[in-house]
Amino acid sequence: MAHPGDKTTVIIIAVVVCGVVLLVTIPIIWVVIRRRKSPKKIPADNDPNNVELDRVGSDADDGYQSLKLPYRRTSDHTYQGLKARSDIEDNELTSDETYEDVKTRSQFPRNQLKIKEELGHGDFGSVYKAEAWDILGRSGTTIVAAKELKDPAASTAFFKELAVLKLLGTHPNVVSFLGCCTDTEPYYLLLEFVSGGSLQSALRTSRTQQTYGNLHGGSKSLSPRDLTKFAWDVAKGMSFLSSKKILHRDLATRNVLVSADRTCKVSDFGFSREGDEYERTTKTRLPVRWMAPESLFHRKYTTKSDVWAFGVLLWEIVTLGATPYPGMSKREVMDGVQQGYRMRKPPHCDDRMYSLMMKCWSEQSFKRPGFPELERELDVLMEDEHDYIDLANFDENAYASLQTSREEKI
């Protein structure tokens, strides 16, 4: 028979052991909780050393470059658009409902579309000249441009561009969206056909249409007034897009089309997003030479970053399609922009035109003009009889950097 004192001793020992276990366990639990809640250290976004150029598979310097981002951060900003495949983790499935709205509206009967010759290559595949019967209530045949989705991996980007196109409405300086064929493959985006090709091509062709020895006679194909009007047209198109809260994010002369009557139309919305602000969260190929500092180093895009790109586009127009930052590598461009470097005034460019460029390249985005202001200033220049671009003194040798590729891609 157990002695009562023995039971008491056992109870006391058990209580002591439990107390010791609790004293050891509580600090461990507290440390684990603190570690889970503590934020990860984030490197400074504005440090240019944190942004690295990645290797691109092609040797062509096509104006785009991959950037290795030091830290992937999820944006707090939400915009009304579709989620890009690049923003989706490998193990995350996209619901079928994501594209339901896009696929079921703006449909054009496939049997009323006849694909003709190939015009070139776009972001997703080939671009064709096509005939559409009775499109948008227009009786008879209408010539359209049909962008075909050939790469299944690009389907998310294809439908994201479609979502943006449906928001456009119509404007004489923006390429019109006419419909789509997305009921069955192959998928097509149907756009206004613009016969003159890209503004970049038109500018560069104007060089070849003048004999080298007769360069000082001025451009035979384009006048200084034509060039000023090109800039004015693009400003009007971008003013319209900004009023729709559409961020283009890839504004450059290669993405502006010229009609037969020399009207410029902003095009190529593969990079575009809807909203006041967009934050890039993934590594992607980027048009470094056209990008604002906040886009390069903070991943932020607003209408004011489009304004920066417009300043670069102005420089392209003035130099008849030269590649921005001539003689500089993309790494040198990034470092230069970070340190406040801006492209110098071309000798044949009037101070007032160059002043517009410099306003667009203000370090602080809120100091840059809006597109309505740029539109008004260029309107004033158009009314003036003065030539703001002196083609008679254009030195082609100084702006001979004409890097080309087939359609630049993201």
List keywords for this structure.
single chain; 410 residues; alpha+beta; Phosphorylase Kinase, domain 1; Transferase(Phosphotransferase), domain 1; 2 domains; 5-stranded antiparallel beta sheet; 3-stranded antiparallel beta sheet; 14 strands; 33% helix; disordered C terminus
Distance between the termini: 87 Å
Strand order of the largest sheet: 3-4-5-7-6
CATH architecture of the largest domain: Orthogonal Bundle
The tally of helices reads: 10
CATH fold description of the largest domain: Transferase(Phosphotransferase), domain 1
Mean pLDDT: 78
Poorly predicted regions: 37-50, 54-62, 64-104, 211-220, 405-410
- Class from secondary-structure proportions: alpha+beta
Instruction: Spell out the helices and strands N to C.
Output: HEEHEEEHEEHHEEEEEEHEHHHH
**What is the alpha-carbon Rg in Å?**
28 Å
Shape: extended
Q: What is the top-level CATH class of the largest domain?
A: Mainly Alpha
Superfamily (CATH H level) name of the largest domain: Transferase(Phosphotransferase) domain 1
Biggest sheet architecture = 5 strands, antiparallel
Oligomer: single chain
Strand segment tally: 14
Beta-strand portion reads 5-15%
Share in helix: 25-40%
* Structural domain tally: 2
